[in-house]
Amino acid sequence: MKKIRNGDMVIAIAGRDKGRRGAVIEILSDGRVRVEGLNMSKKHQRPNPQVGQQGGIIEREAPLHVSNVQLYNPATQKGGRIRFKSLDGGRKVRVFKSNDEMVDTK
Asked: Which pLDDT score is estimated for 40?
């Protein structure tokens, strides 16, 4: 079970985008995450007429290491650390360490 999952709202705690937040787009296998609107990089794209791809400079999200983001806690309006808690039915849920509020509501 992972502490950060796809679709989670995270806040950057290091780097040039420190303090900004966005939703997780993708989790890579090497411990990096792609976050919507954070760590933007420019890529010079060559046109490919066979596929119908136009050339130019495109902006895309570069991956951040998972240690540089924290899950956003809406109750405290800050990033928070996560721990796991077992419920009575045997289900494991993620909770914030600061205020014991559950992240998983499903």
From this structure: 95
Tally the C-alpha atoms within 13 A of residue 34's C-alpha that lie toward its C-beta: 10
Of 56, 58, 101, the C-alpha closest to 76 is 101
Domain ranges of the chain: 9-45+57-79
Q: How many residues does the chain have?
A: 106
Backbone angles phi, psi at 19, to 5 degrees: 95, -15
Strand-pairing partners, residue 22, are 10
Dihedral sign for Cα atoms in the order 41, 44, 50, 52: positive
Fold (topology level) of 9-45+57-79: SH3 type barrels. (2.30.30)
* pTM for the predicted model, two decimal places: 0.81
Cα–Cα distance between 58 and 60 in angstroms, integer? 7
